[in-house]
Design a protein that fits this description.
Layout (H helix, E strand, L loop, with lengths): L9 E5 L3 H13 L3 E5 L2 H10 L4 E5 L7 H9 L9 E5 L4 H10 L3 E4 L4 H37 L7 H16 L3 H13 L9 H4 L7 H7 L2 H9 L9 H6 L20 H15 L11 H13 L5 H12 L2 H8 L6
Helix pairs in contact: 2-3, 3-4, 6-7, 6-12, 6-14, 13-14
Amino acid sequence: MSAAERHQGLILVADDNESNRELLSALLGAEGYWVVCAADGREALARVENEPIDVALLDVVMPRPTGFEVCQAMKSKPKTRLIPVVLLTSLNSDSDRITGIMCGADDFLTKPVNKHELLARVHSLLRLKRFTDELDNAETVLFSLALSIEAKDPYTEGHCDRLSKYSVALAQRRGLPEDLQVVLRRAGIVHDIGKIAVPDQILLKPGPLTQDEWNVMKQHPVVGERICAPLKSFRHVLPVIRSHHEKLDGSGYPDSLKGEEIPLTAQIMQTVDIYDALTTARPYRKALSPKEAFAIIQSEVKKGWWNAELVDLLERLVLEVGALIDDKLEIVPRG
């Protein structure tokens, strides 16, 4: 059955008891849902990995692995973490519910399952899934738009991907929490999306820009912020987009922010952006080696432009543990 035909959604029922599987399948099927079943945890994980599951109903005491473990595994993977999970259990202790919450469960149903409660929970979670799918689709459109802008200039090929990875690595070294690492991963892709408003004759000009052209170019962070603003999941990405061209001494753009007025996430992005720009070939110069690039960046630190701590951290990441970055964090140093 195609996605268009299963208008109600695809529900996974995972339970080692065949009678329970048949009962839940009959209840859900009668409401127009498409149901797939799994007899143990291993089969459940295979289902969610290979099929477009919309809601997963997991028996807690399944073998190989348990419902708790399946839920935790699903919530730990980007591909499956947004699938709503309902744990089915005859266990009623607070500790069991806390365990389920810690595993990332979205809801609980107590056995024997009440038909009306089951259908109400599934309907509610399907609405949530459709909403998150729409968010995911919107992010995909933004990422595609950003990469299409990058593709205009052969000299910037891979720039967004490198910035995404470098900024996350630098954030990890700096000790930033995981949620801000996600912000930087997204910001690395869309940080220059506002360049869609910059005419190609300015964006691709091989020589120096005139003052009027430079004034147009300096508006791209503001435009980028405006493009991404409607997406609420990007609310913490917006300051990175707007402020990654600021300088600590206030000589940057678009707002002439100084020092700690510039968000730390934006400072991280600007640090890796400068490094990548210097170590990427341009029509007017060859790519610099990491050593040459950091010599220039450190001289600019002395001018008061960049965060010395972040520059030092990035330099150690690239020059001291470059192989580790490549193997573990998928970052490929230039030069």
